[in-house]
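pinned: reference chain
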Amino acid sequence: MHTAWEEAGWERLGDGVARRRMPGWDETIGVIAGTTGVMIVDTGATLRDGAQLRRTIRGVLGRNVTHVALTHPHFDHVLGTAAFAGVEVFGAAGLGDLLRRGKDELRRDAVRQGVDPDAAAEAADLLVAPHHHVHGQLTVELGERQVLLANVGPGHTAHDLAVLVPGRQGSPEIVFCGDLVEESGEPQAGPDALPQQWPGALDRLLALGGEDAVYVPGHGAVVDAAFVHAQRDALAARFGVAPAP
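pinned: its structure tokens
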């Protein structure tokens, strides 16, 4: 039997936890529902994306998003944020300053990647920077459910945030990885990547979730810890970093 999430085009990952692979750039959007709060992990590439996500989540849960967690500062993960008016926005320390300084570059990157120029300009103009800055780890309460935000970077960017959903009733932990992990292709190391530090970020990610967790990449299918270990070793070899001890 399909759940309400699956009928809405999402993949159910656990009790009150789901994700969607967005059309276009295949970026993952996550949702975590508690009794008093709802967190979305990343917000899509445009305000239209964000608005559609907001409506879908409200349609399934009957409640609005209350918290946004931004995994890193790339256009396909942050430009929909302004569609979630009045919510609490979380990001790795330094992300807010980067987004405020880098709006023009974010807009240009979105257009280079195929976003309509007017849509990119509108989203960049209205972009919401994080209200809460995660330096190490921060617990967010969504009622009976606690979600752990962890600044595990730098790696894919200088501001990589992971989101850990603790398991319940024997179910495994779920870790939203952002683009520190990619399954649908080789991890993308753009000009803002810190490749020498990326393997260490994956070590911290694995320590956060453990060997039995479900890992949700920023792009691609859900993976396990063995996949993350293999990607860590491949990145270390690619960038000349010492193997894990």
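why pinned: The chain has eight helices and twelve strands. Helices lie at 4-7, 47-61, 75-78, 95-101, 103-112, 117-125, 198-209, 225-239.
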